[in-house]
Structures are given as structure tokens and as C-alpha cells.
Amino acid sequence: MLNNKAENIQERCYTFALSIILATRNFPRNSEGFVLSSQMVKAASSIPANLFEGSGGVSKKEFIQFISLARKSAIEMMFWIRLVSDLCLISKDQHVKMLDEYDQIVRILSKIILNSKK
């Protein structure tokens, strides 16, 4: 159900998830670091996973549900990015880059949902 332009969001979200996973490798190796890392990896990887699953020939209604789940996971990332930034687990530069990409992804996913409902 995704066209060529929208298929690019799959790769963009995959790259975003990969960047989050790589960033969490520098978290402390204690219970706090493990919990924060696990939550961020789960939320970030859920975004492209739902996009890929939603593009797998499902009905329009199911497609919108998968894109909506991806969007919700992207919105969840805002919380995790803010939290790990406030805990000084990522740099200010990482914080800005992650939030910028998060914002763009949420906008694109929102637009896909709106266009799919037409």
C-alpha cells in the first residue's frame, strides 16, 4: 500500500532505530542503563517493524492500524529521548538530532495516515 515516496519512510525509520540502538550501547551497564536502553530499543524498533508489517498486503484498515502503531511508538520516543538527555546519557547534539528526526517521522506518518483515510 506504500508508494515509492512513502517506502522511503521505512528506510528512514529503520535508520532512526539503528541510531537509537547504537546510542544505547554507551549507556551505563547497570539496572538503570539496562531499563532505559531496553525501552528505547523496543520503541524505536517498533516503528519500522510496524511499517514493514503494514506494507505487507493487508487491508486499508489494517494498514492504517499498523501506521498508527508506528506513529505511537515514534511519539513514545520523544519521552525516552528527553529522559536520557536529562540524565546526561546522550549529548546535546544527539538530543537535537534525535528530536529533529523524531519530529519529521511523526509528521510523515501522520500525513500517511491522513492520506490513507481519504
How would you sum up this structure, described in words?
The protein has 118 residues and is mostly helical. The protein has a single domain (4-116), classed as de novo design (two linked rop proteins) (Up-down Bundle). The protein has four helices and no strands. Helix 3 (60-86) packs antiparallel against helix 4 (92-116). It is elongated. The mean pLDDT is 92.
CATH class: Mainly Alpha
Low-confidence stretches: none
What's the overall average pLDDT, rounded?
A: 92
CATH homologous superfamily grouping: 23S rRNA-intervening sequence
List SSEs in N-to-C order. Answer: HHHH
SS strand fraction: under 5%
Q: What would you call the quaternary organization?
A: single chain
Count of distinct strands: 0
- CATH names the topology as de novo design (two linked rop proteins)
Radius of gyration: 15 Å
Helix content: over 70%
CATH architecture: Up-down Bundle
Number of domains as seen in the coordinates: 1
Overall 3D form: elongated
| Helix count from the secondary structure assignment | 4
Give a quick summary of the entry.
By secondary structure, the protein is mainly alpha-helical. The chain contains four helices and no strands. Helix content is 82%, strand content 0%.
Topology record:
Elements: H1 4-24, H2 31-54, H3 60-86, H4 92-116
Helix pairs in contact: 1-2, 1-4, 2-3, 3-4
